[in-house]
Amino acid sequence: MPVYLRKNMTFTPPSLENIADLDENDFEFIDPDKLKDQVPQPYRLVNKIVDSVVEKAWSFISDIENKKTANLNKIRAPKYDCAVKLQSHEKATALTDSVDGRYVFIGLPNGIVVIDSLTQETVSTWDEEKVDIAHIKCHLIGVQTYLLVTIDEMGIAKLFIFSSEQIFLLKILNEQVQEPGATKIISTKCESSEEGDYIGIVLENTSSNEIWLELHRLPRDTWLREMETVVAELKALSQQQEEEAAMAAESTEDNSQSPSGSPKPGTPPPLLTLTPGEKPNPKFTPPSLVLKIHPPQPITGSTSSSVMSACQKVDSGEVIGTGQHHIITSTHLEQRDSMFEQQHENMMKYLPAEDKQNEEIMQPTFHFVTSSRLTPVGLEQPSQTGRPTTVIVWWTGESNLRQYSLLKQSKDFDHKADIVWPFCSTITCSTTSSCGIYLAVGLRSGNVVLWDRYLGIEKGVIGVSSEYSIKQVQFLDPSISSEDMTDYPPYKTSSSAWLLIQTSDNSQYVYNTSLNTLVVLYTVNENNEEETVLSTVSGIPELLLVVTKDNSLLLKDVTNGQDVCELILPTSFDLTSPWEPIYSFGGGGQMLYVKGSSSSKDEEGAIIDESSLFVYQLRSFPSLDGYWKRPRNNDIKPVHSTVEQRVNALLKHRIAVQPQRKERLEKRWNMMQQELDIILQCQETAKKRTGFGHAYSYFDQPEENDN
């Protein structure tokens, strides 16, 4: 078909002003799916719902795949299933180790057993029927003399002393009155100071639900002297029984026995008076009550009749109080409550209902500390240096921390706190460092307040989490901190402390006080396993014993958060509880004792419970060899050391460098002899030059007659 084109045709280009602006919705025509007409309602809504469901499902699937990939790429810690089952003590209810690592104390349903931590041989036993030990703690109070603090299932707190492979009962702190209708007072908590100077016991009246804290002073030095006397008397009695048995065997013909020797006049009465077949039960000096602390009462209206009488009860205001004495009447408080309910009537229904039956009972947390600059003037005693002189107490659900002096002499054991520390949020946990310098307080707001007790200043506030409260705080061993030379050479001092923090969601953080850095050690969001219990390994301060929610035992490096190894119990055995497992270290961290339990069914379908005590030899684990070989300085002194510590350190260093000083003195004397020879040679040379100069000047002088 022919096509005719016109010649000499010109096209005028359009002007820029006539070009239409690009429409923002032009991409819809580029996308092929947008060329279709939108579906009408309600199908459009259904389409959006389906798309959102698919997107959520796809994101959920992607997260699962990412976690699986991360777990596959994660370096797995070695697993050790070399637990040794003990043939006895399978019904252990509590475990603890001695401070020096020699022994392990096992609480049983009928007493206490002491075993060697390395050989597992039984050293001593204390038996008593129907005494199920629920809690046991050991303190070193002398040379191989240990104080045992126990609480049984009946809520009775007892003190024991262990020395020379013998266990003796010291005192029953809350002995019950065996009478019908008598008030029953049980103990819910009992803790002693580190060296056994004081002990605190929390008592509860079961009939009235009243609870209070009692602090007792323990006659530690007196107990040590009495224990030496008891051991000597036991040796004398055993020798006497052996002699009587030998004489009875020799005199079988006439069946005569030698009479026992009577005590010499003027000797003190013996602590042991035994009859044949009777157990030794010596009488020791009882502890003395020092202080009794009751929980804080809720703030109520003032009962004063006038403003003047109310002001007389109020202190001068120099010390922060608890807010109990004020001039606000109860009528004013009731009106404020009614006004609040009226203004927020529509929101009051969303408040949780008060459950008085399941209301939490206030429990105290207390720490025995030494004197510092926070101690009020007049309560310091130089003779008590290094010993606890103050107790810090706070109660569950309150935001005030109280400090009481243990040296006050008063007939009334109930007295007011010397210092009250208010905090901006409810206190959830607290701890003190091993040197007694730092005090860390965890709050419900997710913050940790760190105090320097030695200087009496607040060191800082650590913002850990804004969503979760603080569950646990713990100071790590100072030997893992960096060693710096401070203004007091030549001894090493630790200018930093490491604080382990655990939040309510079981996430873990480590805070360095010198660098003011917070390092995330473990977060639950990034891991499937939830860790419930954290405990430092004695002998290896860099390691933590971690118990997970699925009953797994892990050893973790606290410096980098990596799992070092995993401990596996035998088949069909699990921990007694992932929240409160029964375990203890021994031999300075070389052994780990763990109680495992299992349940099975017999042929008739009845459930059979079985429990056993297992031992792990941590010293034989290859993954821990590097930690055992790592050098550590256990003599690191804190930043704020005393004058005696500085003088002793300087004297020790002076004695250590004495051979080097002798060598330097000998070298210096040799150098002085050489220098003296050089000086003498210089003097002789100078004299010679001086004499030659005088002679030359004499011959060169012109004669007077020459003129």
Commentary on this structure:
- Pfam families: WDR93.
- InterPro entries: NADH_UbQ_FeS_4_mit-like, WD40_repeat_dom_sf, WDR93_beta-prop.
- This is WD repeat-containing protein 93.
- This protein is of the alpha+beta class.
- The N and C termini lie far apart (153 Å).
- A hairpin with a 4-residue loop joins strand 34 and strand 35.
- The strands form nine sheets. A five-stranded mixed β-sheet has the order 1-32-31-30-29, with no helix packed on it. Strands 2, 33, 34, 35 and 36 form a five-stranded antiparallel β-sheet that branches.
- 21% of the residues lie in helices and 31% in strands.
List the helices and strands and how they pair.
Elements: H1 27-30, H2 43-73, E1 79-80, E2 84-85, E3 94-97, E4 103-108, E5 111-116, E6 122-127, E7 133-142, E8 145-152, E9 157-163, E10 166-172, E11 185-192, E12 198-205, E13 210-217, H3 220-250, E14 288-293, H4 307-313, H5 330-343, E15 364-369, E16 390-395, E17 400-405, E18 419-422, E19 427-432, E20 438-443, E21 447-452, E22 457-463, E23 470-475, E24 483-484, E25 493-494, E26 498-503, E27 508-512, E28 517-522, E29 531-537, E30 540-548, E31 553-557, E32 563-567, E33 574-575, E34 583-586, E35 591-601, E36 607-617, H6 625-629, H7 643-656, H8 658-699
Parallel strand pairs: 1-32
Antiparallel strand pairs: 2-36, 3-4, 4-5, 5-6, 7-8, 8-9, 9-10, 11-12, 12-13, 13-14, 15-16, 16-17, 17-18, 19-20, 20-21, 21-22, 23-26, 24-25, 26-27, 27-28, 29-30, 30-31, 31-32, 33-35, 34-35, 35-36
